[in-house]
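Quick one: structure for this chain?
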Amino acid sequence: MSRSLWLLQALNSLPLKESIQDDILMESQLDYATDLCVETEPCPVPQILPVSLKGQENMTIQNWAHIESCKPKQYFEPETVEDVGRVIEHCRKNNWKLRVFGTGHSPNNIAMTEDCILSLRKMNRIENIDKEQKTVIAQGGTTIKQLNQELAKHQLGLSSLGSISEQTIAGAISTGTHGTGINFAILGANIVQLELFTATGERLLCSETEQPDIFKAAVCGLGCLGIIVKVKIQCEKAFRLYAIQEPLSLDKVLDNMDDWLRSAEHWRFWWFPHTDKCVVWTANRTERPKTPQPSFISAWFKERLLGYHSLEAMLYLATFAPSLIPIINRLYFRLLFDEKKEKVDQSDKVFNFDCLFRQYVDEWAIPRRHTVEAMKRLRNLIETSGLYVHFPIEVRFTSADDIWLSPSYGRESCWIGIIMYRPYSKDVPFKYYFEQFEQIMQSLDGRPHWAKPHGCNSSQFSKMYPRFLEFKQIRERLDPEHIFSNQYIDRVLDG
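Got it. Here's what it folds into:
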């Protein structure tokens, strides 16, 4: 046995400490194996048998936040579209449910099942880039990060991105992932064609002109219409963004909301609860040169030591003394956000940022016209209820679209997201805060983010979405036995 192989086996025999797992996840979130671990056992890289023989058994699937998990009967990693069909047929014959698990970044149970899990991580090839038409064809398991890297080589880029790029493209569009910019729609609006493998064994090519109803349903289809094995995405010429981040009071932001919203191509703000402080972020396309990168030591001190490790330690202490939270919010605003900052870089490096450590999150989309009212009610809730809540509350915007289950369907939307961190994976009280937040959002005609926790059911969604019944009819046509269902899908579509 070689020395290196012996060392690898020895290391694999040791339990991984949670802090080490955290480092692996934060340094390389493309390491899918770390999302498929049993917390109390060693974390070996799963050895997946050929799909035609047998799926992997005795595996625990866990999301990145470690708040949802499942133990499926079998786990598959198909390498071809034909393999995907074999897995679907295998589940159909056994009367098993089948869900697709991406990179584990959905903080609810949308991807979980006790029957069969399928990962597209081996179907992650970029098949074609058309520089003239500015389009890319990619398999469903391709991550957005991969897309960013490959598109940059061809002087192309995605028009808008969310806060992270670790998700698979199929998973991201299926749950309504979005960025910010009142003239930019959710990520799925950039899909011009997709290939869907249905429960009945059909391979459907869908677009605005080919089976358009299925296309509009499947772009944000929650993974319950079939498996998206391929997508064609409309891109644009590669661009740099000039981003300005500056402190402002919440009242000044709310008093000038419309002016701010139209002041930049991409605009969002973060409010620090228990203070009157906001961070306003604007970004526009630019021909300016990239700004110099800060020194490694400076960046590590601010971003990792202060902005990550010390913050996690402080929030951990606050789990024993919650009254510390307002002090922490004020302190970290002063330390890290109380001065104007400017940055020019490649678009994805400006759109994306570090979402720090494990967390509970909730996010809703409301009609844009209700933004000010929503923020005032949320501030009043926090000030009068005795709640102690973490920073930040993030506010973003998207244009209207015509994707049937998009939270921005038919209206310009304001997306409000709240957060409660889990320092060192320690649970924190969050349910009452989230319940009260959801009540405010529902009263303002809100729609929850599909990949984040919420308590809504089918009867409520039928009132939120004008095409909801048509979506369900297409589901019955494509998946009459509800193979692509689970506890979450049962609630939101049939509950």
